[in-house]
């Protein structure tokens, strides 16, 4: 499970890199920042999906006991 605070921090760091890259004209830093933000979003979506799967499995286990 991904720590939500850590994920939010990764996204914020990515945004900071992107803004710094834009301000300085450093396309590489700007792209790196955008990439970091996409990674953070992907981690969040994967974690959300994992939680949904765990919930479904638990629900099925409860249904089997009835």
Question: Please, could you describe this protein's structure?
Answer:
The protein is an all-alpha fold and 66 residues long. Helix content is 91%, strand content 0%. It has 2 helices and no strands. Helix 1 (4-24) packs antiparallel against helix 2. It starts with a helix and ends with a helix. The model has no long low-confidence stretch (mean pLDDT 92).
Summarize the structure.
Helix 1 packs antiparallel against helix 2. The protein is mainly α and 66 residues long.
Keywords for this entry:
mainly alpha; rod-shaped; 91% helix; single chain; 2 helices; 66 residues
User: What structural class results from the helix and strand content?
Assistant: mainly alpha
- Overall morphology: rod-shaped
Instruction: Please describe the biggest sheet, giving its number of strands, its sense, and whether it closes into a barrel.
Output: none
Helical stretch tally: 2
Order of helices and strands: HH
Task: Tell me the distance between the termini.
Answer: 29 Å
Itemize the secondary structure elements and their pairings.
Elements: H1 4-24, H2 27-65
Helix pairs in contact: 1-2
